[in-house]
Amino acid sequence: MAQGINATGMEQVAEEAPVSKRTLYAHFRTKNELVIAHLQGFARSGATLEGVLAREDVPARERLRRLFDQPARDAAPVRGCPFIDAAAEFPDPESAVHSYAREQKLRMVDLIAALPAELGCREPLALAEQLATLADGAAGRAMVLDDPDYGRHARAAADILLDHALPGDGRV
Q1: Most CB atoms within 10 A, among 12, 26, 39, 74?
Q2: Confidence (pLDDT) at 77
Q3: How confident is the model at residue 49 (pLDDT cuts 50, 70, 90)?
Q4: What is the DSSP string of the chain?
Q5: Are 81 and 139 spatial neighbours (Cβ–Cβ below 8 Å)?
Q6: Residues ≥6 apart with Cβ < 8 Å to 68
Q7: Is the Cβ–Cβ distance between 143 and 75 less than 8 Å?
């Protein structure tokens, strides 16, 4: 769905799917169901920022800094955040797709907050919101500018936030 969710019809999906149209519709009665299943699969894949945050072999501060890395350039053009993309294409906050995207964004803040808390931050949730805002903004600008390294700007701002919010050097 590189052309966008709303620009991709179920007929086009059925033509590209490795299953019959009948099977596709048996599993996904509506496009909303298909979009949510796609987003759920993406979330489970480890290719999201959640995968970055879960890396226990990487120090906590470095995991926070990696929020600003875009996926490898092999997937041109840069697509940004799939959850923001989905919410933008389904702007009704009550729609199932928008609601799922919102849940993922709220969950991401909780996951981010656990790392500054581990590093001794007194206000980990506030810092997590700031870092999530920077990450979302960087993903959006990276997509619009087709610049996979755009996160370097947000990472520099995040370093300042981390230096101010974490005790000592914050490199626990």
Answers
A1: 39
A2: 67
A3: confident
A4: -TT-STTS-HHHHHHHSSS-HHHHHHH-SSHHHHHHHHHHHHHHTT-SHHHHHT-TTS-HHHHHHGGGPPPPTTSPSP---HHHHHHHHS--TTSHHHHHHHHHHHHHHHHHHHHHHHTT-S-HHHHHHHHHHHHHHHHHHHHHHT-TTTHHHHHHHHHHHHHHHSSTTS--
A5: yes
A6: 134, 135, 138, 151, 152, 154, 155, 158
A7: no
Q: Is the pLDDT of residue 110 over 70?
A: yes
Contact criterion met (CB below 8 Å) for 64 and 49: no
Q: Which residue has better confidence, 19 or 52?
A: 52
- Tell me how far apart the alpha carbons of residues 151 and 81 are, in angstroms, rounded to a whole number: 12
In this structure, which amino acid lies at residue 14? Answer: A
Instruction: Compute the C-alpha angle 77/15/8, nearest 5°.
Output: 45
Residue with tokens 């052309």: 3
